[in-house]
UniProtKB/TrEMBL annotation:
Pfam families in the record: PBP_dimer (PF03717), Transpeptidase (PF00905)
Penicillin-binding protein transpeptidase domain sequence ranges: 264-572
Name this protein carries in UniProt: Penicillin-binding protein 2
Keyword Transmembrane: yes
Residues spanning the membrane: 12-32
Main location: membrane
Protein origin, superkingdom: Bacteria
Compartment list: Membrane
Domain Penicillin-binding protein dimerisation: 59-188
Membership in a protein family: Belongs to the transpeptidase family.
Keyword terms of this UniProt record: Membrane, Transmembrane, Transmembrane helix
Keyword Manganese tagged: no
Length: 595
């Protein structure tokens, strides 16, 4: 029989064990809660205590490619070399056969400097200065922006007090090819010019961050890392063709130097789409070495300069008088080399001749200022102004390139007696190359002007594609009017005195030249003997596919637009070859020069 005395110790033991088990269960539950259920939250909390740290994670800036996906601008990895001053010193290592060797700090600093291009003394001073300011310093830069090859060489040294932080840097594989369009970055990786600047929203990466705990020795504690990943920038695809751009850049560089000009450009657009297939210029900037180019050569003159277009505007006047003035390609006008008009204005041609009974076609073949002025009287000045606006003069382009200039076209009400006639042959106003190319594109495209584009679209890191909203095409003249002007310009290519120099065997070509006077900022008048020359045309004339324009700023060997002929012929030939345009199979309509 069990007594009360014997039951009491057993009960106390059971109660004690129950209490102990309850406490253990409580600890286990709490441990699971800390280490499993709410582990992420507690890691976040732990990163805020004394030895927490973080590191920026850099996304790559997006690439810029040509129409076929060839990289024009991309990102590569660069590395910053970081040293731990507190833990620098001699290093003892076990070598072959377990024989220990010692690498002293002065020896190590020499090895580091041999890779980074610094003297050993300089590296030692970095460490000494850091420790003098803070004996516990564990983070100082030795060198920033080293290459991958340098990084690997330093990593092979296996120095425990060296770490490396990687970040993207910009590179341009083809150098100056399209450099003035692409633009460039500053030393702090901030976009400064060109498409790098205007399309920064597409190209910019979103940086992330890696947060972690460090032990007292500065080493990251495994399992404490928390990462907010970086997001790479988008890929910007352009409309230009890299190989064609390269060829035309070589061509215009040669022509500028041969003609002793200040600068030059070649622009190519696709008639039906308005896509810019090349925009080559010289001098050019290499975005890899911007400092090698003067400030004025770092921009795109194609988009940022304006000029008096000269006789290239006679085609726009011809289109206007046909569309609104009841004229046609064979309408006649009598004009001598100097004409005096009822309002007192006087207009002269560049060559002396008696009164000719020109056809409108002949006016453009001989490029007669006096005759185009006479026939322009079939429409009033306001109507001509309205047509110039529809052709896009003074409006810039839909590209909206950084710093893009627009032509200066004053309202017709502000034209004085002389300007009324000067504007018929491209004086008394200015335009830009994109505006001029767009206007000729309208003639080539059967009277409809398609806005120019330079960017195909942006593809984000997640694959989302965004294309720019382009303005709607503008009907400038009727299809019949455009066809007549196409035939007039083809006859210019056939009958002008430079016809043999621009002929492309197998193809029907349409063309017009312009020799614009340059203003003199000192006198306020025109600069003596200085001209801006242009040759612009399209092919095939019977089915226009591409517009090609060549400009030269102040050529000195040949001062007229004939200076552009060789470059125009070679450029047009290359464009037709690049895009495999079929040769013409029909004969051109030969129109009379005189009535």
């Amino acid at each position: 029989m069990t007594t009360r005395a014997s039951r009491s110790p057993r009960r106390r033991t059971v109660v004690a064990l129950a209490v102990v088990l309850a406490v253990l269960v409580g600890f286990i539950v709490r441990l699971v809660d800390i280490q499993v259920v709410n582990a992420d939250e507690h890691i976040e909390d732990s990163l805020e205590w004394a030895f927490s740290g973080s590191r920026d994670l850099h996304g790559s800036r997006g690439a810029i490619t040509d129409a076929s996906g060839n990289t024009l601008a991309g990102s590569i990895l660069r590395y910053d070399v970081v040293i731990d001053p507190k833990n620098t010193g001699d290093i003892t290592r076990a070598g072959e056969d377990d024989v220990e060797s010692t690498l002293t700090w002065p020896e190590a600093s020499g090895l580091i400097g041999s890779v980074t291009g610094q003297e050993a003394d300089e590296i030692q001073r970095i460490v000494a200065s850091a420790l003098a300011a803070d004996p516990a310093d564990q983070y100082e830069f030795v060198q920033r922006g080293i290459s991958t090859e340098q990084y690997r060489a330093l990593a092979d040294l296996e120095l425990p007090y060296l770490t490396f932080e990687q970040h993207p840097a910009r590179t341009y594989p083809d150098g100056a090819v399209a450099g003035n369009l692409i633009g460039f970055m500053g030393t702090d990786e901030v976009p400064l010019a060109g498409l790098e600047l205007s399309e920064d929203d597409c190209l910019t990466a979103t940086d992330g961050q890696l947060r972690f705990q460090r032990g007292k020795d500065g080493v990251i504690i495994p399992g404490t890392e928390v990462e907010d990943p970086a997001v790479d920038g988008g890929t910007l695809q352009l409309t230009i063709d890299r190989d064609l751009q390269w060829y035309l850049m070589q061509l215009i560089a040669e022509q500028v130097q041969d003609m002793g000009a200040l600068s030059g450009s070649i622009m190519v657009t696709e008639v039906g789409t308005g896509k810019i297939r090349a925009a080559a210029e010289f001098p050019a900037v290499d975005p890899n070495n911007v400092a090698a180019s003067p400030d004025d050569d770092r921009r795109s003159r194609i988009f940022t300069d304006w000029f008096e277009p000269g006789s290239t505007f006679k085609a726009l006047t011809a289109a206007t008088v046909i569309d609104a003035g009841g004229q046609n390609a064979q309408s006649t006008v009598v004009a001598a080399s100097t004409e005096t008009f009822a309002n007192g204005a006087r207009v002269r041609d560049s060559f002396v001749h008696p009164a000719y009974n020109y056809t409108l076609t002949g006016v453009l073949i001989d490029s007669s200022n006096a005759a185009i002025s006479r026939i322009s009287e079939s429409v009033d000045p306001q109507t001509r102004y309205d047509y110039l606006q529809r052709f896009g003069v003074g409006a810039g382009s839909a590209v909206e390139f950084p710093g893009e200039q627009t032509g200066l076209l004053r309202p017709a009400a502000e034209w004085d007696n002389q300007t009324v006639y000067n504007t018929t042959y491209g004086q008394g106003l200015t335009t830009t190359l994109p505006e001029l190319v767009g206007a000729y594109g309208a003639i080539a495209n059967d009277g409809e002007r398609v806005p120019l584009t330079l960017v195909e679209g942006c593809t984000a890191a997640d694959g989302t594609v965004t294309t720019a909203d382009a303005p709607e095409p503008v009907r400038v003249v009727s299809e019949d009017t455009a066809t007549q002007v196409q035939q007039i310009l083809e006859n210019v290519a056939l009958q002008a005195n430079y016809a043999d120099e621009i002929a492309v065997p197998g193809y029907r070509i349409a063309v017009k030249t312009g020799t614009g006077e340059k203003s003199d900022p000192v006198t306020g008048g025109y600069k003596s003997g200085a001209y801006f020359t242009t040759m612009i045309g399209f092919a095939p004339a019977d089915d226009p596919q591409y517009v090609v324009a060549v400009t030269l700023d102040e050529p000195t060997k040949v001062k007229s637009s004939v200076a552009n002929a060789a470059a125009f012929q070679q450029a047009m030939t290359q464009v037709l070859k690049t895009y495999r345009v079929m040769p013409s199979t029909t004969e051109p309509p030969v129109l009379p020069k005189f009535g």
